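Researcher: Good morning. I'm working through a list of sequences from a screen, and I'd like to move beyond sequence-only analysis. For each chain I'm collecting a predicted structure so we can compare shapes side by side. This is the next one on the list. No need for commentary yet; just the structure.
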Amino acid sequence: MADHEAIQKLAAALVNELMQAGKAVATVESCTGGWVAKAITDIAGSSAVFGYGIVSYSNGAKESIIGVQNKTLEEHGAVSAQVVEEMAQGALHLSGADIAVAVSGVAGPDGGTKEKPVGTVWFAWAVRDGAHERVDTRCERFTGDRELVREASVAYALQGVRERIEA
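Model: Good morning. C-alpha cells for this chain:
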C-alpha cells in the first residue's frame, strides 16, 4: 500500500517525467474523487503538464461529461473495463492531453458484490500516439478500509501513467 508521502514522491517524479517528455496528462476519476488530480497539482509547475481533471462520480456524469455510453454502463456496470476505457478515451478527447488515466472502483465499506467485492478497482490509460490511440485496462483488488483502497488506487494510477511515458 502507498502512503501520502509515497504518493507525493510518485507525483513529483511523474510531473518531472512529463515535463522531460513534453507530454500532458488528464485524469477522470470516480472512486478516487479527484485525488489523482490533486496529487499531480500539489506539485509546483504541474500546470505545464496538467490541464484537465474530471470527477465523474455518478453514472450520469460519466455519460453527460465524459461520453460513456448508457448501454455500456447498463451492460457492464460503472466498475468495469469497458467503462474505464470509455472514460479514458473521453478524457483524452476532451483535454487534448497525450495520456489520460481513468479510475472507477468499489472503495467501500459498502457497495461490493460477489463479482465486484470492495477493493475492486478498474483503471484505464489512454495514450495518444500520433494519429492513433491505444488504451490499456487493468483491474486490481486492494485490501483495507476505504481510505487505503483509495490511496492504493491513486498510487497505482500515477505509476501507470509513468509506465506509459517510458513506453
